[in-house]
Amino acid sequence: MLVPSSPDPLATRQTLLLRLKADSPGREIAWREFYRCYAPIIGGFARNMGVRPEDVADVTHDVLLGFFAVSPKFVYDPARGRFRGYLKTCVWRVFQKKFGKRLRVDGRPVEEIDPGDSHVDATWNDVWDRERLQAALEIVRTRYMARPDKARTFRAFEMYALLDSSAEDVARELEISVESVHQAKSRVSKAIRAALAEIEVENG
Asked: What angle (nearest 5°) sits at the alpha carbon of residue 33, between those of residues 204 and 36?
């Protein structure tokens, strides 16, 4: 399976799925983008459902390889539900096939649990949202750090909001005012929310 490089993080879902078609000239690049977008979600979900660490990579591989095999004929229809729900069902079916009675969730063997189970659904959505937030953060980090005039703003946000440094310590280290630290947090937080909205619209 291809390992993702560093493609455009905001590839439109519908466009991305179309590019996975067998006759698409950009299928290999589209697959890298698909892998990068969804492998962390599948792996995180597997870990949260109790899959052993040594099996997580295999599960992720099986799910993505299975989707890759059917992708030439896959037709995304938003009217039938969000893509996140479809992918969750694909992941759960792999769990059931691979683990059967060996993996138990809330005391029940995974083969007896429907993918629409409330606990399964809540865990999947939690992992999905967390990974999407991380993706949005990385998008904003890349955009800010690429511009010398904005790099310090992101650094101030990172130190203050993510690393829990005090506003005074951040201001002292970066040689800016405390007010600038608070402004950096506000601006970058707004940029992250915007990036997250883009991802949610475009990646289901």
From this structure: 85
Q: Which amino acid is at 66?
A: G
**d(C-alpha 201, C-alpha 199), whole Å:** 5
pLDDT digits (tens, 9 = 90+) for 17-72: 666 665 666 667 777 878 888 899 999 999 999 999 999 999 999 998 888 777 66
Return the CA Rg of the chain.
20
As given in the structure block, the two tokens for residue 21 are 């078609």
The domain locations on the chain are: 1-115, 129-204
Rounded distance, CA 182 to CA 162, Å?
13
What are residue 4's DSSP bridge partners?
none
Distance CA 73, CA 158 (A): 43
Q: pTM for this one? A: 0.74
- DSSP β-bridge partners for residue 105: 108
Task: In whole angstroms, give the CA distance from residue 181 to residue 200.
Answer: 28
CB 49 within 8 A of CB 95: yes
147: helix, strand or coil: coil
> Which residue type sits at 139?
I
Tokens of 166: 């005090």
